[in-house]
Amino acid sequence: MKNKKLLRLIVTGLTAVTLLTGCGSSTTSNTAAKSDTKVTKVKVAYDQTLKPISYTDENGNATGYDVEVMKQVDELLPQYEFEYIPTTSDDLLVGVEQGKYDVGIKNAFWTQERTEKFVFPKEFLGLSSTGLALKKENGNIKTLSDFASAGFTLAPIAANNAQYTIIDEYNKNNSNNQVKLEAGDSFTVDVIQWVNEGRVKGGVILEGQFDQQVKADNGQYHNLVNDVVYNEFAVIKTWPLFNKKQQEFADAYDGAIKKLKEEKKTNELSKKFYGRDLFEVLDKANR
User: Lowest-confidence range among 33-42, 109-118, 149-158, 165-174?
Assistant: First the structure.
């Protein structure tokens, strides 16, 4: 945050000079000058277990792709000071909607329903590879169409999870070849465990999560690295969710994130946290 602190010192110094040289000016001018240096603290909620997207590291610090992008946005906005608050996906959604948090980051997908509850900025935050986790013997199932045709069972997905919306939209557009979709009781399901135990034939999972859980040497299910596979079926834009009263904040975010994309900072963070530059396949983004 050194650059941001420097920006604030510069702004404060310039304001001080303005006040000293404008002693004879009106009270209105002085008030305006003071307001220019006001720093608004905003609460940024993040899903603390969604590694590598957003999580709390071993030192208790907020990190992950979504978090680190927002930290760089913060650097470009001296008028705001971001406070990162770890929480769950469920609490994040409710908290942002109710104003407990000003913005939430959790690899959120766009849905029509969410536009009624949150402010979506003009600029997306990142990209997410979404796919199917399957037993290796079912690795020939590459798409939702393949999955449906095979008559396979899918791990439950909470109805308020945007992944549910993705499958539901597919079903509406493919009435003769639908995926068996079941609404789950909790926001997240341990997809790898369900697939490995044979409770279901497959489950929807993010590539980053699959890599962390299965491919990483210290992954929870690394022992299954030769038994389960990940097959991508969609690349989807992800968004920060702003409280309905935070339109001005969302507009400021738009300007900052656009600059970061132009400078390829988001590409660098994608490679760092996902092991690939998802922006290279932006033209394949499904939504």
Answer: 33-42
